[in-house]
Design a protein that fits this description.
Keywords: ER-Golgi transport, Golgi apparatus, GTP-binding, Lipoprotein, Magnesium, Metal-binding, Myristate, Nucleotide-binding, Protein transport, Transport. The chain has about 190 residues and is an alpha/beta fold. It contains five helices and six strands, in the order αβαβββαβαβα. Strands 2-3-1-4-5-6 form a six-stranded mixed sheet, sandwiched between helices.
Length: about 190
């Protein structure tokens, strides 16, 4: 697996398998981020309806649904993968102001699911290289994250297409460290 997981990677392996889901609207950069972490490079992809990608080994399972189109009912497919999820990665196109409310709606539905109450949330504010991109604080406000209690969250600025993936390794490291802390408390 790529070097995306750095030092946090070794800490998590003394605990049971970690399950992470990657979700968000179509064209936000989910697949690019996943390929960057899996292969260390950007592969061109486009979802006409939906595609499913995974990074899976003994210790870590990352599931990514890349949903095309605008049918909100398709997000119910995510629920198949909610069991035992410890981390949620929500990818948002920071430049897509037109659909930021749709992105909020999808994230809100995910966060309200009881199976995900204990999951740590990482929001990748992707496409920060674009001139009209919303900054992480603006996205946090639009997603009402400051109102959340009892859930660790971070909005990480990122650009999956730049070099090694600006902000990607920092986001994954934060997420894995937060999961590690929760596992320390849970498993001692």
């Amino acid at each position: 697996m790529g070097q995306i997981f750095s030092n946090a990677w070794q800490k998590v392996f003394k605990y049971p398998r970690i399950n992470i889901i990657v979700v968000g609207l179509d064209a936000s950069g989910k697949t690019t981020i996943l390929y960057k972490s899996k292969f260390g490079e950007v592969l061109n992809s486009q979802s006409l309806f939906y595609s499913y990608e995974t990074v899976d080994n003994r210790e870590l399972s990352i599931k990514s649904w890349d949903l095309g189109g605008s049918d909100r009912s398709i997000s119910s497919l995510y629920k198949r993968f909610y069991e035992n999820v410890q981390g949620i990665i929500f990818v948002v196109d920071s430049n897509d102001r037109y659909r930021i409310e749709d992105a909020y709606y999808e994230l809100d539905k995910i966060l309200k699911d009881n199976q995900l109450n204990d999951a740590v949330l990482l929001v990748f504010a992707n496409k920060q290289d674009l001139p009209e991109a919303m900054k992480p604080d603006e996205i946090a406000r639009k997603f009402k994250l400051y109102d959340i209690q009892g859930r660790n969250w971070l909005v990480q600025d990122s650009c999956a297409c730049m070099g090694r993936g600006y902000g990607i390794s920092e986001g994954f490291e934060w997420l894995l460290n937060e999961i590690h802390k929760k596992n320390e408390r849970k498993f001692g």
